[in-house]
Amino acid sequence: MKSTKKKVIVILIFILTISLFFSCSEKSSPINYLIDGKTALVIVVENNDGLLSTANDPVYQFYKYQLLSIFSELFQVPLSEINNLTINEIIETYGEDWQINEIKKHAVGIYDTIIALQDEAANLINLQNILINLNQVKYNIDMVFCLHGTSEIFVLNNSDYCDIQQFANFIRNNKINLRMLYQTCCDAGQALNKWASSGIYAVNGAVSTNHITLFSPGFFMEEWVNGATFEQAVKNAFNRDIEKIGSYNDRVPVKTYLLTESNIKNSVSLFGGKDKNIRFSNKIVIYP
Known about the structure:
By secondary structure, this protein is α/β, with parallel strands linked by helices. It has one domain: Rossmann fold (3-Layer(aba) Sandwich), CATH 3.40.50.1460. It has twelve helices and eleven strands. The strands form three sheets. A six-stranded mixed beta sheet has the order 3-2-4-8-9-10, with helices on both faces. β6 and β7 form a beta hairpin. The radius of gyration is 23 Å and the shape is globular. About 8% of the residues have low confidence.
């Protein structure tokens, strides 16, 4: 009888030990977040003449009037003011301001500080100084990049090619409290390990050439500040952008030329960093 009890106890201890082992091995330690803390948003928008070749595109020329009408409505500018401009000039003159405002309208009153950079202000030295200054007063810093890029670089004003790994090293070496980066840069999904080396909590990046970039930054900010996780906010913004662009198909055949299966597949985001499920309400623990 005693022998049977001992066997039962041994078996129970064995089962408990195995259960504890698998429980510990399958779950990583949770990240400790605060519920209070100052937040700063840094927005960098720079087209950098990246759409100049589009002016000579036969498709653009064929649908020029329809596209200009859409831009006139979207950017709230008279058609007469953009009628003789190239698509690149329209984006540079009106589109960048519009995109910044679309992001800011969801962030104002939510973030403690918002800084937007474009044109001459969007240079590497300025960006680095802003991050250092915000970090010195212990802000949780979020960034939005509406820029051109590759798996190696992102491009600021006047073709200022910024090496991603060097910038990540700058973030890490200066202990910048960088919480998340939302970006529309092409091929950024191939640089997630570089961004992760900075210590960032969440970052996204397109698989290849990103064709879905117009509405998604504003949609992302709306989703993000309203409680979605970083991953949810990125994915929801992407789907909403596709839906919004598709709504113009009765005026311009965007589903034929832009929203192709290949373009959508290449524009999908991958994720990196410590926690793609971080939310706006999760503040980073900042040590003195």
